[in-house]
Amino acid sequence: MEVARLAQLGVVVEPEVGHEAFQGRLSIPYITKTGAVDLRFRSLNPAVEPKYMGMTGADTRMYNVLDIDKANDYIGVCEGELDTITLSACVGIPCIGVPGANSWKKHYTRLLADFERVFVFADGDQPGTEFARSLARELPVTIVQLPEGEDVNSAYVKFGAGYIREKAGLE
Question: What's the Cα-to-Cα distance from 100 to each of 10, 51, 78, 79, 112, rounded to whole Å?
């Protein structure tokens, strides 16, 4: 519950007029030094499509950018806001994320250039592997390949924080 509070997650109970489609969804704010700059909404029911929804007209942004200032010599990168929260708050690896494997923008690379080590946590599927490989072409990174069918959240639940830290060589 504390992690959700710190990430300022919420559930849309009474949506504003015109935002009724977000009712009952998890609200995920994109927070910067100036405050919330975007919101994404995740279905709490796995059978409901689409799984994620965003505000109309909003640009794709990097998630959890405040961790860039909190990080020392290394930072993690992953796909998905909830995986980013898990790495940062539960595993203890400062992390930024993008909302999907195809959401990386070239200028994000400049934000990571000064870190001694950048870990890319690759989901155990084809898009996750391609995401990690594409970042490796732009920036010297350490790819942390998760097992087939796993992402950061599922690996954390199944194996714990120590497993993820060990895969990254941080244990």
Answer: 21, 12, 9, 5, 18
